[in-house]
Amino acid sequence: MIEWIEFTVKKPEEEGKYLVSDGNNVDVADYMLTYNYNIEDYECKWYPRDLSPLDNESITHWVLINLPGEA
Are 63 and 2 spatial neighbours (Cβ–Cβ below 8 Å)? Predict the structure, then answer.
């Protein structure tokens, strides 16, 4: 069983690809730093795939992608 993590409670510790959901839809998204105007002004955002039913603002839960054979 997948143990989903609520995004408002805990954010991913590093950039990467994650399984994400809005509570109804599930997809894969990249979690990346986005720099606004300078190196000290940044935020982390979700970047779902093109044509995904999800967007950055709708993602409420995430989980690490754990492929078979990976610990």
Answer: yes
